[in-house]
Amino acid sequence: MAAAFSSLVEAFRNMGVARAYGAPVQIGGEELVPVALVSFGFGGGGDSGAGGGDAGTAGASGAAEGGGGGGFVLPLGAYTKNGEGKVVFRANTLTVLLGLVPVVCAVGMSLRGVVKAVSASRR
């Protein structure tokens, strides 16, 4: 299990702040620094077979182990210079709207619960 865990850690070692901000690129004479939301995770587990599980499916030693990982990258926008030469953030409108969907849903469900509670207390 330790070898599998070490392999996963090594695979995700390069994830982090360096992945959230891309290398500057030149587009139409303008320098842009892409920005993204980067999320990843991994995990693993095992069973020694001593707990009375079905050792026939766990291999010859009676032990089972496994692991996995995954992640996603969501492009948020880019840093660029405006007409005055100041650095500004230009958001990716579609991604920002898609990112707000869970927030709007959570607020809506919370308000629905509050309205139900208030109407139930007035009865």
Task: Please explain how this structure is put together.
There is one protein chain. The chain is built from three helices and four strands; from the N terminus they run ααββββα. It is α+β, with helices and mostly antiparallel strands and 123 residues long. A four-stranded antiparallel beta sheet has the order 1-2-3-4. β3 and β4 form a beta hairpin. It is flat and about 70 Å long. The termini are far apart.
List the helices and strands and how they pair.
Elements lengths: L1 H10 L5 H4 L4 E3 L2 E18 L16 E18 L5 E5 L1 H29 L2
Antiparallel strand pairs: 1-2, 2-3, 3-4
* Order of helix and strand elements from N to C terminus: HHEEEEH
**Which consecutive residue ranges, at least 5 long each, have pLDDT under 50?**
none
Strands of the biggest beta sheet: in what spatial order? 1-2-3-4
Structural class: alpha+beta
Key structural traits:
123 residues; 4-stranded antiparallel sheet
Could you give a short description of this structure?
The protein has 123 residues and is of the alpha+beta class.
